[in-house]
Protein 1
Amino acid sequence: MGQSASKPRPQISPVLEGNACRLTSDADDDVSGYDYTLDLPDECLALIFYSLAAGDRKRSSLVCRRWLTIEGQSRQRLALDAQSQLADVFPRLFSRFDAVTKLTLKCDRQSVSIGDDALISISLNCPNLTRVKLRTCRELTDHGVAALAENCRNLRKFSCGSCSFGVKGVNALLENCELLEELSVKRLRGITNGAAAESIRPGKAAATLKMICLKDLYNAQCFGKLIAAAKNLKILKLFRCSGDWDELLGVLADDVLWLVEVHFERIQVGDLGLSAISNSANLEILHLVKTTECTNIGLMAVAEKCKLLRKLRIDGYRTNRISDYGLIAIAINCPNLQELVLIGVNPTHLSLNKLAANCLNLERLALCGSETIGDAEISCIAAKCIALKKLCIKSCPVSNHGMEALAGGCPNLVKVKVRKCRGVTSVGADWLRASRGSLAVNLDATEPELVDAVVHGDNNNQAVVDVDSGIIGRSGSFKVRLGSLTDSIRRWRSFVSRIRSKLGRNYSD
């Protein structure tokens, strides 16, 4: 009992300093510090690195050799500048990053990109790649892409843009990569160089493809057989692709039954194409951007058959081919509509009333470049769109009165964005903010220039303010000018009162 408790023996632990290692004990922790990361297993450090931003992750990997090794082995995403000189460092690069599954190769337009040999080397060192993105790799040919497809058969997403390979390379991908789910092709030069007569074969990937995106292609219709054979295709995006798409979509009308999302932008498609797309009863998202041949007839066909529609975006390009009739059909047949974006379309209170009455889940609404959206239409939206949360108004004849209507309506509204609406000033926005404290108001109203004013004394030594109304700027309504002058008048009244006090005389207002 008289013996004191024995003091535990200090535990010796290794501490890494740069590339050197020394021993330290618990007794001198306060002096030299202790590397507590040594107690963490490699798997925990890998999770920490995974949560860091790209820059922090790079800097952290330089702390010590252990961190460098763990960071390299845990990195799954890698983006490289794919210039020709990159091929010289491939052995060392991929010996460190041996777990990469997502690879991006992007070259500057004015530089020479890597060639087929480099791509083959990558495919041999990274057989587990699941995502590959190629940008401006103009030195790659069908041979290199075919080797990539043969060596990396687990590819699920493939994207290429401004490359030079052609149909044979794409066919090799579709034939060898049985798990391919997403295919994105943009400005593929090899397809236009004498390959117009050759078509894309479906291959084994047709059974798994869920998304096809084609952009800026002169001969995109050579993908027609692939689109028809992709029975599980859910997303189809066509951007600025030449050719008559009405004819092709008409042929594919019975083969695109499972589409959920469709994007058409600047392509030659009209009501026949929309009627073919309407066979997809599961369609939920439809974007029609500057498709000048689409009219109310095609939109009504979509509305009648695609009753699950949730998001609709229409850029009418000021052609006035889609109006109240098409929007009323959407309102009557698509009660699940949650998001509606109208650009260059001129709806009136007739269609807005129907949309507000039938689409009770409408949460996001954008009205841009419309000549018919005024204060009356905004008042209709404020009174009847109960579920609305976000509202965007741009380049519409709306004034401060419309903002006043919003202040008392749309109980669930959380954000309002107003752009290029000359009738809306900061006075209306401030009043809206004051009335709805929790509402986020984003306004870019340009106030008229401040008026010039001269203060002088009249014959009775009374201060007089002369306002040169010609400096107001562009002509506008009297209410707009009056609202912008309110603050200026207050300031000048204060200035006048100071002058009176200095003169030492009593003046009545």
Protein 2
Amino acid sequence: MTKNITFDLADTVEMKKPHACQTNNWEVLRLGADIRLKCMGCGHVIMMPRADFNKKVKKLLAKSNDPVNLKNDFYVAKEDIARPNFG
């Protein structure tokens, strides 16, 4: 079964198995081929391959309102930037 959930930085996800501190909630710190997660219970940071993460994630608990994720809304392509004519 493939999951079509997109993850952003600072999202909170629930994993299938709890951490040693009995917490299932994790915060996404890094996205890429590897994903870095921080336990919301004890603060332990782990890194795992994306393939393993996709198998072990249960659901997305909370989307972040982090300004880092809003940068794409303000992105302007290089050819659309207005340049003054000094010449």
Protein 3
Amino acid sequence: MGCSFVSCFLLLISVFSLADCGSIGVNYGRVGNNLPSASKVVELLKSQGLNRVKVYDTDPAVLHALAGSGIKVTVDLPNEQLFAAAKSTSFAKTWVERNVAAYYPHTEIEAIAVGNEVFVDPHNTTKFLVSAMKNIHEALVKANLHSNIKVSSPIALSALQNSYPSSAGSFRPELVEPVFKPLLEFLRQTGSFLMVNAYPFFAYESNTDVIPLEYALFRENPGVVDPNNGLRYFSLFDAQIDAVFAAMSALKFEDINLVVTETGWPSKGDENEIGASVENAAAYNGNLVRRILTGGGTPLRPKADLTVYLFALFNENKKFGPTSERNYGLFYPDEDKVYDIPFTVEGLKNYRDHPSPVSGNQQKPTVPVNSGGGSVSKSTTGNTWCVASGEAGKEKLQAALDFACGEGGADCRPIQPGSTCYNPNTIEAHASFAFNSYYQKKGRQMGTCYFGGAAYVVTQPPSAYSIPYPF
């Protein structure tokens, strides 16, 4: 359905008058063996008008290539270094000196992401997070960089206990006192912001029976009314972000800003990954860019202009997990676009989303689910389980385990130290638990028990393999 004259006119005005509403960046992941050089990547970013980039480490080649480019950079201190950064101020000081101060200001580092989705990290690093952030910040203070470089940490939406309706958003209770209150207090004291990774795709593919595609892709739809405050939502993205705002407000941190450090939609997926397609990826990211650059804030925070980092710059062929994991890229490794969308206000002048005709009745969205983590399992028949392959090797198992407990959204709390399924404390046992959690969550469908060849399906209960499972 085309827009009305009035809505088209308002959109045209917004394109020309709200250029500073929000900001679009991109995640530059490098889990591939066929990607262009860092210098070519910088030229690609500049040619597309992308002036913000987030990287997952502090690779010297990348930071040197970004020097003098005018592109603002967010760097990452990996989860593996959280313990050292939390326990040693000298480590934090040295890390900042070598990985930040050595490049700044020629490389415009504007933020440090301390860890990534730490709450689902299988290595139990949550308890080190806030101390690590404080030590990194103190190191910035000593280098006199704290006014220009902010410190935060990206959280996954699985950190929410409730996300529907948005006004009822709340953090997981076991994380509130030990982590979120001190974390948000730190962000307030340092003038920083909360980093959030939000993927409407996960919620949509797990709940296609109640979440209309139009609602997930920012297309025209009747909207969803929050019963608690009467606000109407026209996109799942806005609803997810407001659930985080509500969770912060519940803890009396209404003044903390938010940056969306990851969001995206895959252009290809396995048969069971409903909605993964080039057309939907183009619609989601293209309409998101328009939403951010012209749309102001969210229903709950109308003045909260957002900075959003699209995930990701390239398709990365060495990533573990389902097919979608290797197909979030805006570009192919040869720098050709996977689909054509704009990244700037100027580019939006000629942008049009072209949805395919959808058969059937268009019903009003109901979305009676917790849309935060896409954790609603689909019902299936047959008894099968997913277990780790002992022949995969520790390195491959660890990488796959990290994916399952991180981006994959598996429930890995039972295999944390002291929890019910921590023993036996072996990489194979923990990987099997995580793989099966992911497999069951995905409805035991084809392709969800692969993990790059590190897992396989069995028809006997995992207890037969001496693997701890609460199933």
Protein 4
Amino acid sequence: MREESEDESATADELTHTTSDGDVQMVDVGDKPDSERRAVAVGEIHLRPSTIEAIRDDRVGKGDVLATARVGAIQAVKHTWETIPMCHQIPITNVDTDFSLAEDWIELRVAVETTGKTGCEMEALEGVTTGLNVVWDMVKAIEKDDDGQYPDTGIENVRVLEKEKRRA
């Protein structure tokens, strides 16, 4: 866990999601100008090589894993404001999803674009985590071991790669 430096510590009066009384609040972005914004997030799911092969060959019993995960990722982006407290509902103008398959893992990269008063990195992160969860759900029957556990399966390295802000 990262330690907070003196420069990063904030008093109650400086916290944007907390009132001076300690109550939670949504940040007022009403006076901010609209900007074109873009965020890209990425993450990976580690799977057995035989599972990756089944995905490549479209031999997973539940259906097309990557197509289903793509739909899940896009839906998650569109509904981020419903799952992250104090997150603004923003107009999503574009979502791109890109899967890369290796021998024992799949990387999902989600790029989100909007024109508005606040950024879209939370939407990109939600797209990645949900998309990877959908992959896990689609392949769990072939990933679990004889004891019903998932020793080779794991979602890792979810992070924001970039975010951009340009005047609209």
